[in-house]
Amino acid sequence: MRVWYFSEMAYHPAWDEGLKRGSLRVVLPSSNVDPQIAHGLLNRYLDEFALCDEVGLDIMINEHHSTATCMTISAPMALAVIARETKKARLLSLGSPIANRPDPVRVAEEMAWLDVLSGGRLEMGLVKGAPYEIAPANSNPARLMRRYWEAHDLILKALSTTDGPFNWEGEFFHYRNVNIWPRPIQLPTPPVWMTGLSVETGRLAAERGHVVGTLLSGGVAKPMYDAYRQRAQELGWTAGPDRFAYAVCIGVGHTREEGLRRADLIAGYVRTAPVVAEPFTNPPGYNSLGANVAMLKAGPGKGGFVKDRAGNPVDATKATVQQFMETDTVFAGTPDDVVQQITDFNRRMGGVGHLLFFGQGGFLDHRDTADNIRLFAREVFPRIQHLNADKPASTRRPVAAE
């Protein structure tokens, strides 16, 4: 099992105002950001990523826009800084919301450049993006997935073609000469990741052999992993743990109480992230028919993605840290507690090769965050690295590598 530390570099000083207004995203005015405070926070968060390299953890970055929950507005830009400040950690961009980006060739150039800068340490997430990203990007949700797949195919071709230029005439994108410089170190492309919450995404990821990641709910993750494994078997190959990733809040303490306190502060992100003005939660056409039917069946205000192990929705805005532990949203306690929780989760999921360690969620200060990272790296990581050593490895390389 690999472990990737990440945080969304939150601007938590504005959370109370966002909660008062009923939305921390899209419509919360930027007058609520003090750029000098943001300067201090961004540099502090980058120090925490650098610490991960020192203690042997890999690093993940994502991006969101127009929100107090995440100041990372460009995964490639943040990774460019981190690539220069680190030496060993693999760097995961999870990732670029390619259906919202206007220029897929530019995305390919950024990924190739990062791979070269980092010496071949990049892993590349090509993601759909959250529904509340539609308005800031001014994109059309009804044709988002068609645009996503065309951008996906164009990016992989741009990265893997070395005898260019080639032209591209698609539904959404038109280029006369695609010939990116420099090309990536990892050939034909850096490893490709996708994200999702549904069975449908699991099957689509299996068809390409990509790593698929999901977050904060074991009740959501298991059906998606099972769908991936089943689709892989239908296609004649075995999907090993290396194709599955899971993001979870983790608080480790020298005592159980300290671990729970840290996890409770980190989980503040999970409680605030879904607070979005209603018009931006489900743009027409963004979700599939099946997903919309499921949300209607769940009832008003229960369409969130955190579910218990029986698949029942949980109100993430009000859940306690104990309730979050029951939904696999949080692992917390002493190192022994956390090792046991990860081991149990890995067994229930059938083997997960990548743990995305959400170790900072806003109000957890730098001292606690750094100690959380060090304690995890020293006392937990060595005991979970070999959890899946007895499971079959994947028998197929990703489509991009064939």
Protein model, in words:
The protein has 402 residues and is of the alpha/beta class. The protein has helices at residues 15-21, 35-55, 75-85, 104-117, 134-137, 144-160, 199-208, 218-234, 256-266, 268-272, 289-298, 321-326, 335-349, 366-384, and strands spanning 2-7, 58-61, 91-97, 122-127, 166-169, 174-178, 192-195, 211-215, 244-252, 330-333, 354-360. The chain is built from 14 helices and eleven strands. The strands form two sheets. The protein has an eight-stranded parallel beta barrel with strand order 1-2-3-4-7-8-9-11, surrounded by seven helices. Helix 2 (35-55) packs parallel to helix 14, helix 3 packs parallel to helix 4 and helix 7 (199-208) crosses helix 8 (218-234). The chain is globular and about 60 Å long. The chain starts with a strand and ends in an 18-residue tail after the last helix.
Topology:
Blueprint: E1 2-7, H1 15-21, H2 35-55, E2 58-61, H3 75-85, E3 91-97, H4 104-117, E4 122-127, H5 134-137, H6 144-160, E5 166-169, E6 174-178, E7 192-195, H7 199-208, E8 211-215, H8 218-234, E9 244-252, H9 256-266, H10 268-272, H11 289-298, H12 321-326, E10 330-333, H13 335-349, E11 354-360, H14 366-384
Parallel strand pairs: 1-2, 1-11, 2-3, 3-4, 4-7, 7-8, 8-9, 9-10, 9-11
Antiparallel strand pairs: 5-6
